[in-house]
Amino acid sequence: MVETKKSSPRYDKSTQVYSALGVAFVCIVIGVPLWWKTTETYRVSLPYSHIAELAAKETICSVDVTIVIFDERIDKKDLSLFGENLKEALEGTSGSSGLKIKFRGNLRDAYEDEQMILKRSLNLEDLDREIDREKVLEEHGKYSFYIIPANDKLFPGTSDIYIGRRRNVYLHMKSPALEDLNRLVPILKPIIRDKFVNVAALVKTFESASGAQHLETDKASMRAVHSNPGYDVTFTLLNPQPDILNVQWDIKRGVEKFLQPFIEKLMQFASITVKSQMLYYTRLAFKPKHDKNNGRYFLKQEDLPHLINPIEAKLGSHVSNNPNLNFVVYIPTRDQSPLHIYDEKDFPTATNSFLSPRWGGVLLHNMPSPQENTTLPAQVQVDMKAMMEVFLAQLKMLLGFPQAAFPQADVALPDNSGILLWELDYWLRYRTLENIASSTATLKSLAQLLEQIGNIVINDDIGREVQHAVEEIDKCHTLLKQNKLKEAFLSSKEAIVASEKAFFDPSLLELLYFPEDQKFAIYIPLFLPISIPVFMSVIQAIKYFRGKDKEKKE
């Protein structure tokens, strides 16, 4: 029998070799790249270099100050010297390498309309109101100081400084001499730098939000809640003896009359949601001390923290992304009434209330005891005006509004919102710097994390949020430099929301805890049974071709 070529052993061996090489070729050239591509971690491109630039960038916050002179007798050279002295006094260092407060000054004579308003004004309140009417645009962060010549009608002698409702300050200058002008410099500097702007507080807030550590504690920053797009406010009435006192409170009317103007003032900057509740049979967890001299029961400063803990457990759970601020009205029991809070000098506090940082406030509201032969429970009403005045002041402190005192100046009373516009400007500047520093630090931390851990998924949503945050931070820097406070705050709010959305995105955690050794535990049982036969076949193919070469040489 004749052996054909196709049935020869050499042909069969050659077919096996080429088949093995074909399988190896498909596995290595097609299979491995296909597996690598289909199993790689999806990571959208992020602006790492831009984020690093933002973290190293200096934040410049401009403040515009206009000095208006009503006295035409003042020499122009003296005015120029006065302007230079004031500029030098305001341009002190901020004490921060990352934040610069830049004061921009403008010195001018009063306009004719302003001179006419001054002549017909009967008092400083009229002057302030009429000058504000002349201003068409709402200018956040722009302060005007009106230097008024000797005028006993407007300045009867109580004070030479009057701070208006909005952004105007009126100062009394007794003579047009240079000495009298220079006397105003040490008066203007603390008002502008330490009160209206409060450079030290801004620097500390900015550095804390950036991640810097401070050895000294700042009471104002520790007291205020962190910046947030919204806040929840809960009013709670605690009546431990409803069988004796039927306590009524018109909380709806109280909120509408006293708190709603405040909420509307902040509406475009933050949303405030108000809730209320009444709790019965909730008593103090400890017995207050008794003053036998006057029959009062009292709590000392060190007792106040122990009052909050048992109350907080009964206020109910809070389900919201917004921070919750609690304001509690406690009606003392008949056997512990009247109940007062004593200060460190053992005197009753004026408001009989206290504030707990970042939590809320508590008001002890004493009610008159029921008269004899009165049908129980006796009906009593909570004084909503007194209550809301206390809680509104506490709410302002918890939100970070300034508590600046002006001992040498008369300050105009705010409108029904309870906010003076220079206070609003400070709050916007304070929150803007906090937001921009916090969002930049968040993006920097996120970028470092994603660069260090290469197997974290970065999806398109995270990429969009990061890019949006970077754009808003850039925009905020520009607006702060231009002293556009309102627009800068809104941009900073967008930046902080976007950066936190990106940082806390749940998809970032999917492969975060998936170490390399677990990959081997998964891939070895899968690829080892396939790779060993392919590898051995390739070795046999190499031996076959080497043997073939030897035969040719022989």
From TrEMBL:
Keywords noted in UniProt: Endoplasmic reticulum, Glycoprotein, GPI-anchor biosynthesis, Membrane, Transmembrane, Transmembrane helix
Annotated family: Belongs to the PIGS family.
Example of a GO cellular component annotation carried by this entry: GPI-anchor transamidase complex
Location (main, coarse): endoplasmic reticulum
Keyword Lipid metabolism: no
Subcellular location(s) of the protein: Endoplasmic reticulum membrane
Pfam families, per database record: PIG-S
Bilayer topology annotation: Multi-pass membrane protein
Alphabetical list of PANTHER family matching this protein: GPI TRANSAMIDASE COMPONENT PIG-S
Designated name of the protein: GPI transamidase component PIG-S
Region forming the signal peptide: none
GO term, biological process aspect, one: GPI anchor biosynthetic process
UniProt keyword Zinc, yes or no: no
InterPro entries: PtdIno-glycan_biosynth_class_S (IPR019540)
